[in-house]
Amino acid sequence: MKELKNKVAAITGAASGIGRMLAINLAARECEVAISDLDVKGLEETAAIVKKQNGKVSIHKVDVADRRQVEAYAAKIVKQHGRVDMIINNAGVAVAESVEDVSYEDFEWLMGINFWGVVYGVKAFLPYLKKQPEAHIVNISSVNGFITWPNHAPYCASKFAVKGFTETLWQELRNTNIRVSCVHPGGIRT
What are the catalytic residues? Predict the structure, then answer.
């Protein structure tokens, strides 16, 4: 996206860490931000920082593992802000246990957020993004979408999945108005 001023960006996982800093930095470039997370207190803290720099922000409590909530989030942003130009699928969690010890429930919980949250975000926002002259989808993977380490199989599997999903999406949308990026940060303390 060449110009961020007066654009609208949706950011998941914006109560802390990378999501918070994305919101702050986009707002500093006069981009409106629609931030989401389950941590409402954290979202309010992020919004307060954005507002201090005269940024426009809306807060949305969203569980990205719930498809209907993500679809409602996309629709609500368009209703509140008039449009959406960018989705940053950033929400993520980790589980540190061996394959033998990790429960199916914890594995499914992590995949629901880290992988399905990205899929739901892309599919919910794509119809709105297609209406814009230029738009962008940013999916946050991890360096662990390239390399693995013991006791993190669910996390690594989810980040490899995000990478593969995003690269396929990029191929499908490469001749459209929508740009697609997959970001692979290292460890972040949040």
Answer: 155
